[in-house]
Amino acid sequence: MLRVHRHHKDEQTPVQSVTSAPESLEQEQAHRIKRYLVTMAIRTACFLGAVFTGTNGAPWWVWGSLAVAAVLLPYVAVVLANAVRPRAPGSSMPVMPSTDVPRQIERDHPDAADDDRRER
Hints:
By secondary structure, the chain is an all-alpha fold. Helix content is 53%, strand content 0%. It has helices spanning 25-55, 60-82, 110-119. The longest helix is centred in the middle third of the chain and has 31 residues, at 25-55. The mean pLDDT is 77. It holds the Pfam family DUF3099. Residues 1-24, 87-120 are annotated as: Disordered.
């Protein structure tokens, strides 16, 4: 005989919604790597543009702006690559000191004093 289990409405367990699930670690890392590579590609284009415009007689502010961008973009790329998503509230707990304190070694035991003398 087959038994059918029915759930009551008051026994509902919370289910993770697909839309509220966080991005996986692999996807997050791939996104950060892609963002870094795009930023460094822009930096390379700025550097080449600064060299090209500077050698062909463009105004100083054009090649200067491109050169400044080429110098500052590596910092921006690293900061963006190291930016991780914030932790979900309640996902981490503070670490509390342990209440178990190890016992002190008793110094008045004769073997302990002999061991100390041998170490010196």
